[in-house]
Specification:
disordered N terminus; Immunoglobulin-like; mainly beta; globular
Length: 169
């Protein structure tokens, strides 16, 4: 299926190259067939063309192509408007398990530091995850927390976010 996605990506790159802008998003649908006649279809969540790489996110898989190292090459320009970075923590309020997902981050080799604080500012938990883990989505068990207000701090090289949430028992 990955080859089919890259072929679809090549088609859309050629079709959109003349009038696309750096950092623009496009909806792309991916359809594939498997060995036993099964058919799969996926609506791409984002198609992001930036200066150094191309990113295709289906929600289940994230495909990257570094400019010049693939069968296709894009002429990219830097745009002054950055892609918005979105980090979601859900469900909120939290009972036992929480899921953390992100989008808009392109440096998949970067690590992010996660820190959990209570309402008084005391650090209760910490972990390091990669950007690729955040994009794919990662879950944590926080059933050990008491009911109350908490804050999750996410820190990276160019990313600093604090996400408030409520814990219910």
């Amino acid at each position: 299926m990955k080859q089919l996605v890259l072929l679809s990506l090549l088609f859309f790159c050629m079709a959109l190259k003349g009038f696309s802008q750096s950092g623009s998003f496009y909806g792309v649908s991916v359809v594939g067939s498997f060995s036993q006649g099964m058919r799969a279809s996926s609506l791409v969540q984002s198609f992001n063309k930036r200066t150094e790489c191309l990113q295709l996110n289906t929600g289940l898989f994230l495909y990257y192509a570094i400019k010049g190292s693939s069968k296709f090459e894009l002429t990219c320009q830097t745009n002054s408007s950055d892609t918005p970075i979105d980090i979601r923590l859900f469900p909120n309020p939290v009972r036992n398990y929480v899921r953390l997902e992100g989008s808009g981050l392109l440096d998949i080799d970067q690590n992010l530091s996660l820190s959990l604080f209570d309402a008084a500012g005391k650090r209760l938990w910490g972990q390091v995850i990669s950007v690729s883990q955040l994009i794919a989505g990662t879950s944590f068990f926080w059933g050990w927390l008491q009911s109350g207000n908490y804050y999750l701090r996410v820190d990276g090289e160019e990313l600093h976010r604090v996400i408030p949430f409520i814990k219910l028992n």
